[in-house]
Write a structure and sequence with these properties.
- There is one protein chain.
- With 157 residues, the chain is mainly β.
- It has no helices and 13 strands.
- Helix content is 0%, strand content 50%.
- The strands form three sheets. Strands 1, 2, 4, 8, 10 and 13 form a six-stranded antiparallel beta sheet that branches. Strands 3, 5, 6, 7 and 9 form a five-stranded antiparallel beta sheet that branches.
- The radius of gyration is 17 Å and the shape is elongated.
- The chain starts with 9 loop residues before the first strand and ends with a strand.
């Protein structure tokens, strides 16, 4: 059994994107940004903000590998900037066709701030040999589906 300790965790903000559809991700394409954006203002007295995202990627269109490079970004003064120490690379490479599907849970803990900010998960593929599709599934009947949309949760402690 798990639960959220309401005495310590403050201002829980979920993000649900009901208009989500699969998107092929290439090395020169910003991904995940629209469906993972959240506007958040930590309550006073908070020491850290936690940004959590559950995402799904698949091997398509490159069956030999899928490498997701992601980072947490904030929006300030008209531009997005990467939060220090939030870069992450996950995935797999195979000399053979692996055609794998992956579900990742990504959690970033960053210092709290004053005022409202926008946060997003920025991602791209590592290079053009390991492109992937964000939100693509193989359904039980063998057909390709749209996969799971991302689940994002932001809260302060």
């Amino acid at each position: 059994m798990s639960y959220l300790n309401q005495q310590k965790i403050k201002r829980i903000t979920p993000v649900l994107d009901s208009s989500f559809s699969s998107q092929a991700i290439y090395s020169n394409l910003v991904a995940l940004s629209g469906c993972t954006v959240v506007d958040y203002e930590p309550p006073s007295g908070s020491s850290v903000v936690i940004y959590e995202a559950s995402i799904q990627i698949s091997w398509h269109p490159d069956a030999q590998g899928s490498y997701l490079n992601s980072r947490l970004q904030t929006y300030s003064s008209g531009a997005w900037s990467t939060v220090s120490n939030t870069s992450l690379m996950v995935g797999a490479w195979s000399g053979l066709f692996d055609e794998n599907y992956y579900t990742y849970f990504i959690r970033h803990q960053i210092p709290s701030w004053t005022g409202a900010r926008s946060l997003r998960l920025f991602a791209r593929s590592y290079n053009q040999a390991v492109d992937f599709t964000f939100g693509r599934s193989l359904d039980a009947d063998g057909t390709v589906g749209s996969g799971a949309r991302p689940h994002v949760l932001v809260y302060a402690i």
